[in-house]
Design goal:
By secondary structure, the chain is of the alpha/beta class. The protein is 32% helix and 24% strand. The longest helix is centred in the N-terminal third of the chain and has 17 residues. The chain is elongated and about 60 Å long. Keywords: Antibiotic resistance.
Length: 176
């Protein structure tokens, strides 16, 4: 659901886009249009119902991002990008000949891969709650990856599919 701030930002973007096409409207008219697009009768109704943006007042955590140790960049790219279907968010090296630290992402799951000695222990396990595990398994099987053919195991807490990277790390995908 949108918040008040998001709705106001939408109105500003709408005004800017319309102005670029020589259609000037007032800020209040843009707010009314955004309110209607969000399913409200008018801006007054929307502003009474939409939540305010609030920052947590106490301790709060965002999603954890596991760091997995890798030893070979080409094998890591083949497994994580080619087989599992992740994309690269960023890559970092202090110098060209130094170890790689890379962030990857797929459908909301973020992982960091590191060649740095002290960053992580090889042989780690990452537990990943997910949806549509059968579709993911079918996608992976369809790639005919030479080093793994993951399958789904029915467990008391849900469907579980494990994959092992070339460095001994295990990713345990689970659909509860």
């Amino acid at each position: 659901m949108s918040t008040i701030t998001q709705a106001k930002t939408m109105a500003k973007l709408l005004r800017t886009a319309l102005a670029a096409q020589q259609h000037d409207i007032s800020h209040s008219a843009a707010l009314e249009l955004v309110a209607q697009q969000l399913g409200f009768k008018d801006w007054n109704t929307a502003s009474a119902v939409l939540p305010e943006d609030t920052a947590p007042t106490g301790i709060a955590f965002d999603k954890a991002i596991p760091i997995l140790r890798i030893f070979d960049e080409a094998k890591a790219r083949e497994f994580y990008l080619g087989f599992l279907g992740f994309t690269v968010e960023f890559e970092h090296r202090f110098e060209a000949s130094l170890p790689l630290y890379m962030g990857i992402e797929r459908a909301g799951l973020k992982l960091h891969l590191s060649e740095h000695h002290g960053d992580a222990s090889p042989g780690s396990t990452v537990y990943v709650p997910m949806h549509n595990i059968e579709a993911y398994r079918d996608e992976l099987i369809g790639k005919q990856y030479g080093y793994g053919r993951p399958d789904i195991e029915e467990l008391p807490w849900g469907k579980n599919m494990q994959v092992y990277d070339p460095f001994g790390n295990r990713i345990r995908f689970n659909q509860g």
